[in-house]
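Loading example: each entry is read as two labelled lines plus one structure line.
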Amino acid sequence: MKHDYDIHINNDEIDLVSDRIEELQKLKDEKGKIPEEYLEEYDALFKIKNMLFEANRMENPNDYFVYGSMRIKRSNQQKMEELLKKVHVKDLEVVFPSFTTEVLDLSGLKVPKLDNFSIAEHNNQKDDGVVRDTLNMSIPLGMDQKYLKKAAKNDPSISKLITKIRKKRANESIPHYEEYLQNVYDGYEMPIVSYYPNTTVPVVRNPYPHEMYYETSDGLKFDSEYFGRRNKYYMEMCKFYTDIRDEQLAQYNSKLVYKAYESPLVKHPLKVTEIDLLPEYLIERAKAAVMDLYNDKKDYNHRIKVIETYDLDESFFDYLNNDNIRQENINKFFPLPSSLYNVTQSLETVQNMQQIASSVNGDDTLEIHNVSDVNLDHIDDLLNDSNSSIEVVDTLDGDSASEEVMDITKGEEVINNVPRDILIAAGISQGFNLPLEEADASKIIENNHKVKIMNPKAGKLIDSLSTIVNKRVVEHVMSDEEVMEELGTNDSVHTMSDEEVMNELKTNSSVHTMTDEEVMNELGNGKKTSKKMTDEEVMEELKNSSYNTSGESVSKIMKEKLERLARESRKRKGVTITDEEVEKMLRETPYNENVNLDDSFVPFQDSSDILNEDDVLAYSGINLDESPKFGGKR
Amino acid sequence: MKIDNIITLSSGVNYLLLNELKLESDKYFFCVKVSEDKKKPINEYCFVKENIVNGKLFAKVVNENKMIEKLYSLLVNDYQIES
């Protein structure tokens, strides 16, 4: 049996705490250590953070989520409150339901007679006056609009009170609560009447406590605390419903045990009973109350809707499923053709429900709403397996967050603008306000080959992807140019094809494995060898025979130079050489353009060496003194 | 529902389905909200569960922290394995 009630705290507390820790850590970096005056706070911050983590049942704090409201254990309330006093985190608001010491003025209120509940026993107040545990009980009035109106008609004071409340409501802006009250008045919602510990004071619970912060024209101050203890309207409503309830009690004497909770309880025009965790020592009382309800229900239409927002007390269903009780009372428990159940919790609960449902007679329909955490198909199977005429009528009504899919279209346009994987990466890094470090996001992205493939538009994009997607992509679809600009490579907006990439890789690669033929071609005529060289040997050979000037340019320069020298020599010697002869001479020299100089063995360092006239002539085999004599070799 | 499709819910909200995840035989999608004209992604991500009830297709945005945590782990895992 669980005793701890979870307590909501507002959004992003962990972020706020983390930010403050970060501030102090910066201070630590600057000063070398945490200044003494911050030590206590620093320690408290970590403890708070740990408590928040613990409450979220996260095994690894690094993986925590900040999503909606966080919760901490009520048992940690005092500890948390003490820690909070030590820290200075702006906007950090941890809201505890306040069931503390304020006692309402009971004068003038009729206190209902509760046969089966001794309120005094509910008190769990400790010596320091702080109530550790609370029990809030409500009486399901079973009333509907008709009954309310009847009650108001019979009692002018009630009618007057209703008028007064409605009139006041019009002047204030608490829309949800206004609506709630209106619905209560109209009989569409069951008021949840709560009791304060150690009192017999009933109050109508405000399901929208966060709206309750205002000051009325008559100077009445309302705070945002749950249950609005200083709220005059609550008191008025208390009186109103106390009156009604007494009459109801006289008629039906029906009771259930509720736990009032701070979450919005009722959203729909249905009469609602909330059954939630019960302190263990009260479970017997709850059973008794349920039995009373069974025994007394008779001709009164009572719809039971179990709203499960947190942990449904399965022992309650165990109780209901007790064979003896069930056989005797189950039909009483489902007196209506349409008994409404909201089940969201566990499969076990569903199985229990199925057992109960199997006993529903005749044309009764069990509607299961809001089965968010349970496999719908499984429920369906369970129900179909039973011999009853149960069917899942509507599992996805407005009570659930489910929505019908009205249209499906292809998302090509979006995907084309921002590749899917980039969107995913962006989502991972920021989709849930996750505290995912940029480095982690980068890691994920870098590990993802698909991202690389899908985004050939900018090779460097990968490196900066997390930065870019965080900054831009998801808000603005960037063009190629914008992406490149973001990367600071405006001069390279060309999108390379796969072929171009491969060529680029081949050209620059030093690890290309050459075939024998390639090696021979590269090496030219003079390097034939019967030995098959290994790739490494080939590369070594090539490395040793490299030039600063490419073979092509050397060859071209040589040709030009030779031609020029030939012309000049002819001119000088008065010899006339035809162009054809020059061509022939060049062809017959071992260094004509067909020779791949790149692979020759002349270790020239640059073209100026080559252009030494004597060398050229010597290599060309031209003896100017003996010209014209072509084709000679040195 | 399939990835790369945009679903329009009864509320008029559009989601682009980015990644499909299976958890305990249920099908979930990692989604990004897209603009009304279905042309631009909006910086809102969520997990959506596919439900088919009586032949009708429903989608439910996952709100439970624990479930989100599980799905998120799956998503990251899938994303890395795919590479």
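Chain B has a mean pLDDT of 81.
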